[in-house]
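Sequence of non-reducing end alpha-L-arabinofuranosidase (Saccharopolyspora halophila).
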Amino acid sequence: MTRALPSRRAEKRRRGRRSALALALTGSLAIVPQAAAQSADYDLTIEPGREGPAISDEMYGVFYEDINRAADGGLYAELVQNRSFEYAPVDNPDYTPLTAWQPAQQGGSAEVVDDAGRLNERNRNYLRLTADGPQGYGITNTGYNTGFALREGAKYDFSVWARTDQPAGTALTAMLRDPSGAPLSQPLEVNVRGDGWAKYTGTLTATRADTRGRLEVSAAGPATLGLDMISLFPRETFKGRPNGMRADLAEKIAALNPGFLRFPGGCLVNTGSHRAYEAPDWERERSYQWKDTIGPVEQRATNANFWGYNQSYGLGYFEYFQFAEDVGAMPLPVVPALVTGCGQNQATDDPELLQRHIQDTLDLIEFANGPVTSTWGAKRAEMGHPEPFGLTHLAVGNEENLPDEFMERFVQFRDAIQARHPDITVISNSGPDDSGQVFDRAWELNRRHGVDMVDEHYYNDPAWFLANNHRYDSYDRNGPEVILGEFASEDNKFHNSLAEAAYMTGLERNADVVRLASYAPLLSNVDYVQWSPDMIWFDNARSWGTTSYQTQKLFMNNVGDRVVPSTATEDQAFRQVVTRDERTGELIVKVVNAQSSPARTHLDVGTDVEPTARVTTLQGDPEAENTATEQPIRPVETTLDSAAREFDHTFPANSITFLRLRPAQS
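Predicted 3D structure, token representation.
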């Protein structure tokens, strides 16, 4: 599904690559050392009388980046592609301002113009549509993938900004059609009046289901109209929010029960960030700047995404904060540090630009937390959220390859933030890999400057994850703490998930060091793949969780509140950790058996437990993948009736098992 990446992205795609031998180990069951592939007895001893580290309430979260069409054409529920005619070859060589638009009828013309009649300075392009006669003329939008996925009887909210040269007004008609032109809705007619821009709205109801829907907009002539921000939104969005999220994708994310939402990236955050602010707002190749993404959608900028496509900013900072709140996650925004990574590796030498970015970051905190009487708190309230969002953590920078230059600027950001907001945790990072010269130097500087939390990123093969379960055992308990902001094994097969699960037992065991962790990336549209693996895949009508999604969901919904010390027979193929749910008192025994044979295990629980235990298991062929049509790796819930202070249990081959043991009732 992947395609070749442009050279500027090659560095990120390369990360974590190991030798050819290590890569070969990713196949089938060879990820497990040969000696461990035979059936063996294991011992697992739990010490419930001792206390291990407390586990952060936000331990596992999600990392969202607008990659693989994760926003427009994905989580952002807008169905119209290129709704404001801002696509351009600078975003993608295949783009034109009429990408995704086709003529619908004869008897007129349509051209995209940028002149003094534009809707606003940030939304410069608009469509000049000329209908020569009463037969009318129009255009059709083909959406993403195969078109709009329409459900019979579902309602879709249409809107357009329009004006006309006809004093008496011009009839503008919107309707849904299939690729052959057959209608999928009754027509909706609005009367455009006057030569000034105005917003016109209405509702279309799908008369039948079709995954190839189109939106046709036409006008009767003679008339010349200006059209911009042509939009079609499903009425059903996540939690019914206007300008909201695609329901099925948002629900899958919510089902993870994420502790935090890290956004909006990723490489797109800091690339191009040393561009002068004096450049006009409409200039492309600007870095992701949060102020561009708030306010009325028709006034927001569009931007050339680092990943090679135009992003509309319809999904902006307000929506990110709102979504985090809706799913109960801690918001964790990432702002540019004026040192670029992801292959660019440049640092700004403009002190005024640096101070402007620092002030923007202070304004962001005010937007999130400030009172409605403050400048940016008032803007949040105007958008419908007078209450603060409760921002507590903020990351400066992402994967910088110039650690000295980065740290010089990071300290200026941190000092300015802490002077005004001492309750905000400011997060640094350690570059783009799990080790090496950049990593070592970054950690040296982070320790020297007393950084509170460091963001580590790495993408490695399954053998690496199996071999590095003890990575954080030797980290300094006096800090800095770690956020593992991006990690994944390099495929979406179940053997990758087994390796990730085995590694995560080590993350939990070291919960006093690793405070936050998130698999990455989160989303991928099957027709716009730039990075793989991903947690959730989708097209215009369907979405499905990968084997890694099911693994993450199992861990994220069974974290526990505190680690319970435990020991087990040492084996890369057999990993475990035990935590306690303080609310129920249950011990959550998490065991990964990443080998082709069952693991017969003797458990010494160290306390009396109820004989009936809840068991959740992921099990299957290590080569299995979840697809749109088949999801062979799904949780199976059963009960165990033989639990006791000491008992034997066989963990299936190629499995992830969570046992919930209840303390015995006295």
